[in-house]
Write a structure and sequence with these properties.
Number of helices: 4
Order of helices and strands: HHEEEEEEEEEHH
CATH topology: Peptide Deformylase
Shape: globular
Radius of gyration: 16 Å
Largest sheet: 5 strands, antiparallel
Strand content: 25-35%
Helix content: 25-40%
Number of domains: 1
Distance between the termini: 16 Å
Structural class: alpha+beta
Bound molecules: nickel (II) ion
């Protein structure tokens, strides 16, 4: 089911998401949440989506970096539940967009290389080493779980201009 993406300045995006219980992951409800998140992300289209972006305050993300400019290159769906950084190295500046902040691109300073531990869609623990785009996407989605947005890195002036444009309907929100 296609879900509506929560957009800035909705205060929901500022909430901190809660960890998911292992038993919950096996429930039908949770599995359909994951399906809906993928469908919503693919339709947008986007390469990552955190549950808070569809109004669910749980530490869950879906990712698929197999898309370039809206075209599917090769699907590589990933689910990461309760992610935690175990290693963070180097730094990189990445021009990031966000499905919750339409028409905005912000250069973000990120760790270039990270390791993350979490649970997969079957509640199995795993760890993942990531660099560049994958590392950036993971940091972006984990930020969502902590109520942070790319807009936080803009100057006060640019932020209020953007908010103004959104509120005056100058930015089309689907
Ligand atoms: Ni985002």
């Amino acid at each position: 089911m296609l879900l509506e993406i929560v957009k800035f300045p909705d205060p929901l995006l500022r909430q901190v998401s809660q960890s998911v219980e292992v038993e919950e992951i096996h429930s039908k409800e949770f599995q359909s949440l994951l399906e809906n998140m993928f469908e919503t992300m693919y339709t947008a289209p986007g390469i990552g989506l955190a549950a808070v972006q569809i109004g669910v305050l749980k530490r869950v993300m879906v990712l698929d970096l197999g898309i370039e400019e809206g075209e599917v290159i090769e699907r590589e769906p990933r689910v990461i539940i309760n992610p935690q950084f175990t290693q963070q190295e180097g730094s990189i500046i990445w021009e990031e967009g966000c499905l919750s902040c339409p028409e905005l691109v912000v250069p973000m300073k990120r760790f270039q290389k990270i390791s993350v531990e979490g649970l997969d869609q079957e509640a199995k623990p795993f760890s993942l080493q990531a660099e560049d785009l994958l590392a950036v996407a993971l940091q972006h989605e984990i930020d969502h779980m902590d109520g942070k947005l790319i807009i936080d890195q803009l100057s006060h002036l640019k932020r209020s201009r953007y908010k103004d444009k959104i509120q005056k309907g100058k930015i089309a929100i689907r």
